[in-house]
Amino acid sequence: MAGIVFALCAPLTLIALAPLAGIAPIMLMVASASPAGDASALEGIEKTIAAHLLSAGYTRLQVAAIMGNIDAESGFRPDALNPSSGAFGLCQWLGGRKAGLIQLAEATGRSPRDVSAQLDWLVRELAGPAWLTASDKAAFDGLTGSDVAAATEFFCRKFERPSEGELARSLAPRVATARRIFDALAPRPGGAAPSSELALAPEKQRAIIAAAQSTPSPGAGLCAAWVEHVYINAGVADMSGNANDLYRAYCTSSDRAELQAGMLIAVPTHPHTPAGQRFGHVGIYLGNGRVISNIGAIHTQSLDSFISYYGETAQVRWGFPREVRP
Q1: Quick check: helix, strand or coil at residue 324?
Q2: CB 84: neighbour CB atoms within 10 A?
Q3: Angle between helices 303-310 and 60-74 (to 10 degrees)
Q4: Within its chain, how far is the Cα of 170 from the centroid?
Q5: Torsion angle of alpha carbons 245, 272, 221, 262, nearest 10°?
Q6: Quick one: how far is CA 132 from the chain centroid?
Q7: DSSP code of 215?
Q8: CA–CA separation, 104 and 19 (whole Å)
Q9: Residue 151 and residue 4: Cα distance in Å, rounded?
Q10: Cβ atoms 91, 118 nearer than 8 A
Q11: Burial category of 93 from C-beta neighbours within 10 Å (exposed 0-12, middle 13-18, buried 19 and up)
Q12: Four-residue CA torsion sign, 316, 317, 321, 326
């Protein structure tokens, strides 16, 4: 993998992880040779994950490689469950690794679905137990440079370890997300936000995005109700119906060139829940390759992961209600 530098003699940050059920504390050493990232440009669960990993001492490149793989595994959904294998959570844990997550959550009074519990478990795993070999862990700890593709593939092969078929199918989207995260984590003087398509959007679309980022979840299974509340709070449209209704009424395009910030993005059906099979799912496109929706909590994920997850049995489409169309 040309372009990766494994700086095994780089300065190290030493972090003690609290003991679990009588197990001695784990000492996590990560290289601090490359600049720390800045998670301020991310939002929602992506920001939470990046900030957690950065605070654990991981570099911008390492965090991007990890998060590119998390997106492919779960779409950044802490409640993601593979109905066939039972793999669960952000990293689709199985077997003893899944049991370890459950043990940590129970020992600290949290649910295994809790994002902070899953991130604490991930940091523990990164400290050594889940790597293919100790030398693989040491190599990743010393990772520097800016070759996002090579770093993402290394983490996938040595930590996630999917089948060769799955690796071939999913490596490109893993790398695409990692590159987006790497760019978003670039340190910004004074915390300045990166350029955004939202800054160029009309006032109505900016109002929708602002409402989407402040409107709370009305509860599980109410994705369409949340979208309707967002549009009402933005003062731009009054809609009604389930996700299937909104899809058929307003979502007419699957052309990414026509996708705009503030648009509804939906499917009429998806296979992951009984309600989803009947009513589909709907969210709002935030711009910059991100989608926000209500899954019982307000959840932000990449456009690619939204399409991959919800578009298994129906085409994902987008569009505006009549009141918002330019």
Answers
A1: coil
A2: 6
A3: 20
A4: 15
A5: -60
A6: 24
A7: P
A8: 10
A9: 7
A10: yes
A11: buried
A12: positive
Distance between CA atoms of 289 and 183, rounded to whole angstroms? 13
Residue 14: per-residue pLDDT: 38
Tokens of 105: 């959550």
DSSP 216-283: PP--TT-HHHHHHHHHHHHTS----S-HHHHHHHH--B--GGG--TT-EEEES--SSSHHHHHH-EEE
- DSSP per-residue codes, 34-45: S----GGG--HH
The C-alpha torsion from 168 through 130 and 7 to 18, rounded to 10°, is 140
- Phi/psi class of residue 44: alpha, beta or left (left: φ > 0; alpha: ψ in -120 to 50)? left
Helix, strand, coil percent values for the chain (each to nearest 5): 45, 15, 40
Please, which residues bridge with residue 294 across strands?
A: 298
Inter-residue contact 46 to 289 (CB < 8 Å): no
Eight-state DSSP code of residue 183: H
User: Contact at 8 Å (CB) between 291 and 300?
Assistant: yes
Is the pTM above the cut of 0.85? no
pLDDT along the chain (326 residues), means of 10: 38 41 41 59 89 89 96 93 93 94 94 94 88 90 88 94 90 93 78 51 87 90 95 89 95 92 95 91 90 87 86 94 77
